[in-house]
Write a structure and sequence with these properties.
Number of domains: 1
Order of helices and strands: EHEEEEHEHEEE
Strand content: 15-25%
CATH superfamily: Gcn5-related N-acetyltransferase (GNAT)
Shape: globular
Number of helices: 3
Radius of gyration: 18 Å
Number of strands: 9
CATH topology: Aminopeptidase
CATH architecture: 3-Layer(aba) Sandwich
Structural class: alpha+beta
Length: 248
């Protein structure tokens, strides 16, 4: 490499109320944290410009409550490091697993492009091959590296860094002690039902599933396949081994 990459972390929560998904990050409010701004620049370059996804789909309400990592690196001959890659970890709870054959795209007629924070209810989901429908899990997503920085190990470095941090800080993902989570029926959930025990899920673009498999993820056949922005996706899971005594 031309230099040692540096990884920066953006801790939630962030106030992204008023973020307009129809606009590029360069036109968003100046108060947006710099690390998140850099993450969005990478995501727009990879997902919007390179893959052709709608910019309306790139930022979402989960961003404000997620952990974000951005890796900065230099290309040969350059003196200044630039944002080269990013990923995020979204804490539980999540929307229900997509159904097989489901298709989603952003509909500006049905959804407001201007984001606002919104609470998500704990749900009893359908059981799949690797998820019982109830256990809290982290959802890893928005994994992207700029084309000119690929092949340098930055993608794997991002995943390793995020996983190492999560394993050292598992209680970070549990609800605050003064919060009593409720499921979709309004019933209070006990502490055991909301503790993260190392389960991680990804909604992977199907063509890069082999890359995720090399990182320890397994395709969950019970989730089936679906499409987002016209791109086929599959669900994959792995369980991180948490240090003894850190759960709960």
């Amino acid at each position: 490499m031309a230099g040692s990459p540096i990884i920066c972390f953006q801790e939630p929560p962030m106030n992204l109320d008023g973020y307009d998904r129809s606009l590029s990050v360069s036109k968003q409010p100046i108060a947006i944290p710099n690390v998140f701004r850099d993450a969005m620049e990478v995501r727009e370059e990879v997902f919007v410009k390179e893959q052709g996804c709608s910019i309306l789909m790139e930022a979402d309400p989960d961003d404000a409550r997620s952990c974000h990592w951005v890796v900065y690196d230099k290309l040969p001959g350059e003196s200044t490091a630039t944002a080269a890659g990013t990923l995020r970890l979204v804490p539980f709870p999540h929307d229900p697993h997509p159904l097989p054959g489901w298709s989603w795209d952003f509909d500006p007629e049905a959804e407001d492009p201007v984001m606002a924070s919104k609470p998500i209810s704990y749900v009893v989901d359908r059981a799949t091959a690797y998820h019982d429908g109830k256990e809290p899990y982290l959802k890893l997503g928005r994994w992207a590296v700029l084309k000119e920085f690929r092949g340098r190990g930055l993608a794997n470095l991002l995943v390793k860094t995020a996983f190492d941090w999560a394993k050292k800080n598992p209680k970070f993902f549990n609800p605050p002690l003064d919060v009593s989570p409720r499921d979709q029926a309004g019933l209070t959930m006990d502490a055991n039902q909301t503790v993260w025990r190392g389960l991680v899920c990804i909604h992977a673009q199907e063509y890069i599933a082999p890359s995720w498999a090399k990182l320890g993820f397994k395709i969950d056949e019970g989730m089936g396949k679906w499409t987002e922005a016209g791109i086929p996706h599959v669900g994959m899971f792995q369980r991180l081994m948490l240090p003894e005594g850190t759960e709960g």
